[in-house]
Every structure is written in structure tokens, then in C-alpha cells.
Amino acid sequence: MPLLLLIAFIVVPLVELAVIGRVNDWLGLPATLALLLLDSVIGAVLVKREGRRAWLAFRTALTEARWPGDEVVQGALVLVGGALLLTPGFVTDAVGLAAVLPPTRRLLSRALRARLTPAPVRLLRTTTGGARPGSAPGGRRRSPGRVPDDDVVEQRRRRSHAEIDVEVVSVERDGPEDGPAGSSGVLDRPKG
User: Fold this and answer.
1) Scanning 11, 12, 167, 188, which has the fewest C-beta atoms within 10 Å of its C-beta?
2) What CA–CA distance (Å, rounded) separates 64 from 136?
3) Does residue 101 carry a pLDDT above 60?
């Protein structure tokens, strides 16, 4: 974190000043200031337009009951790009444009999601066997990241979910004078 703060508050401003000095030597002070002002105005217009698009894409994803993960990342990139575009300097403006313009924003979004998405966890199978030191009751070894055998999983499932066997029987009334259980008072099973 201190390295990031050092880069953000010391290195980036020094690089910006060096680039602005070079542009000033090349174009002159009035043209450099006009270019910086024009850069900020164009950046503000782009951020407003792309911010609206990102917001509409986010709302559309919510209306369609989709997870708006990509829309959130793209909206965050527009916000960061807008802040960089409004900051005076040519280097931050170039990075801000990359974060705001749709083609480069999609590439940055994919790269960010690939970088921030955790790697899939690889699960390993174990087998049941005799009791070993440090093993659980029944000879099963307890080790993190391991998946028990199918028969152990099935036994656990049976213990955790109560299963009820039900036989469906149809009940017919003989007539209106009989009670709800028929003439004998006992529910009759249909034969064969």
C-alpha cells in the first residue's frame, strides 16, 4: 500500500510535470494550456456519455434479472477514467481515455475480471480405509481440500435428509350414505 501511495502522489505528478514541460517546449505555454483545457472538456463530455451508457446497461441487467458484474466493472472504469481525465496532465488523460472509451474499456474490464476472479479450487478424492492415526471415526481421513467417496456422501445425505416412503391409495365412496371411510369404516385398498 505505501508503494501505491508513493506512485500515486510522487511518481505520477513528477511524470506529468516532465511531459507537460516537454509539450510546453514543443508547442509553447498558451497552446499547452489550451490543450490541457480542451482535454478536460472532451473528457467531461465523454464521461457523461459513457457514464449514462454504463448506468443504462446496469439497470437493464437488473431488469432482466441478470447479475450485473460486468456492468459494475465497466461503470467503475468510467468513474476512474473520468477522474483521470479531469486531472490535469497528458499521461493521466491517456490512461483515463483508455478507461472511458468502450473498446479499450471492454479489454480493461476483461483483464480486471480475470485478475480479480479467484482461481478454481481443485478438489481431490480420498478413499475410506482402516483407521489411521489422526483419522476420523469410521476410518475416514480428515484433510482439508479433500472430497469423501460417493458412498460416504450418500450415507451423510441419508442421515441429513429424512426420507419418507409414501404409498398413494385411491379412496372411492360407495354411496352418499356411507361415511368418509366407506361402509366398513376402514379405508379400502383397490385390488390388483
Assistant:
1) 167
2) 47
3) yes
CB atoms within 10 A of CB 108: 19
70, 105 Cβ separation under 8 angstroms? no
Task: Tell me the whole-structure pTM to 2 decimals.
Answer: 0.57
E strands present in the chain: 124-125, 146-147
With beta carbons less than 8 A apart as the criterion, state whether 32 and 104 touch.
no
How many contiguous H segments (helices) and E segments (strands) does the chain have?
Answer: 7, 2
The grid cell for 135 is 483419522
Distances (CA, A) of 90 to 11, 25, 82, 83, 143: 14, 14, 14, 13, 55
- What grid cell was written down for 69? 458484474
The predicted-structure confidence for 11-61, as pLDDT tens digits, reads as follows 999 999 999 999 999 999 999 999 999 998 999 999 999 999 999 999 999
Tell me the C-alpha distance between 24 and 107, whole Å. Answer: 32
User: What pLDDT does 86 receive?
Assistant: 87
